[in-house]
């Protein structure tokens, strides 16, 4: 059994899911995949199920009853993984905005170079984003700068969703105490790892916006991040934030 597993949350990703699964399984390093699907009405889960006989004991699926948010999908996946023996747990989107080839780079950063958390960073070496309008690039870049200013985390891309965690990080963080379910989930996970003094390393990657399917970003998700970060920092100062 490989020591790494990739968690891919999905909602209406029928255009991408088979391609991303086959791409990950074609890599030189062997990873397992866990898809967490939020009852996609477009049949995403059915596509995954049709592929399971081909990738027997490598491809796994959790079907949830409804659309409950990115954060809760990952938490569900983390608990599933921690009940097994995987040592390196990855977060990755289904839409190819995260290049599957970079999974190996994140893995090596944790496995060989001592990182506890390896972040696929869009902003470590400038702005490495393709096919986003300038308004969205600025919003994302400014959000990361804002989060870094408030939290003092030494991370350029605080909102990145392409991450590898060592098992010990997820075992240390109280996953059921995670407050945020949307965009800010990515921030809270990194902040709690930072508070627990884990070694967070950024690996420069090129982020390419989806070409198939539709984005799940919304205004409410962004505002959750803006206001939630301040509350998160205040709670940490008064020891009210459970790691």
UniProtKB/TrEMBL annotation:
SUPFAM superfamilies associated with the record = Nucleotide-diphospho-sugar transferases
Identify the GO cellular component terms for this protein: membrane
Q: Does the keyword Zinc apply?
A: no
Which Pfam families does the annotation name? Glycos_transf_2 (PF00535)
Per the database record, which ranges form the Glycosyltransferase 2-like domain?
Answer: 6-173
A single GO molecular function term of this UniProt record: dolichyl-phosphate beta-D-mannosyltransferase activity
Q: Which residues cross the membrane?
A: none
Q: What's any GO biological process attached to this entry?
A: glycolipid biosynthetic process
Matches recorded under InterPro entries: DPM1-like, Glyco_trans_2-like, Nucleotide-diphossugar_trans
Matching entries from CDD domains are given as:
DPM1_like
Superkingdom as given in the UniProt entry: Bacteria
Question: Which controlled-vocabulary keywords does the entry list?
Answer: Glycosyltransferase, Transferase
**Which family is annotated?**
Belongs to the glycosyltransferase 2 family.
Q: What is this protein called?
A: Dolichol-phosphate mannosyltransferase
């Amino acid at each position: 059994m490989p020591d790494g597993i990739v968690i891919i949350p999905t909602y209406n990703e029928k255009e991408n899911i088979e391609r991303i699964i086959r791409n990950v399984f074609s890599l030189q390093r062997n990873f397992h995949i866990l898809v967490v699907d939020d009852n996609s009405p477009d049949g995403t889960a059915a596509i995954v199920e049709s592929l399971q006989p081909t990738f027997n004991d490598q491809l796994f699926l959790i079907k949830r009853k409804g659309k409950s948010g990115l954060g809760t999908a990952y938490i569900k996946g983390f608990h599933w993984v921690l009940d097994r023996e995987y040592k390196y747990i990855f977060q990755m989107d289904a839409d190819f905005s995260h290049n599957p080839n970079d999974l190996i780079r994140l893995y090596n950063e944790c496995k060989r170079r001592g990182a506890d958390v390896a972040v696929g960073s869009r902003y470590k070496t400038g702005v490495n984003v393709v096919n986003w309008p300038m308004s969205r690039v600025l919003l994302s870049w400014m959000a990361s700068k804002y989060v870094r200013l408030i939290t003092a985390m030494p991370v350029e891309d605080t909102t990145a969703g392409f991450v590898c965690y060592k098992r010990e990080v997820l075992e240390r963080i109280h996953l059921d105490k995670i407050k945020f379910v949307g965009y800010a989930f990515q921030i809270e996970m990194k902040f709690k790892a930072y508070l627990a003094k884990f070694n967070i390393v950024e690996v420069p990657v090129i982020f390419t916006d989806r070409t198939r399917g539709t984005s799940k970003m919304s205004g409410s998700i962004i505002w959750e991040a803006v206001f939630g970060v301040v509350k998160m920092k205040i709670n940490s100062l008064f020891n009210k934030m459970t790691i």
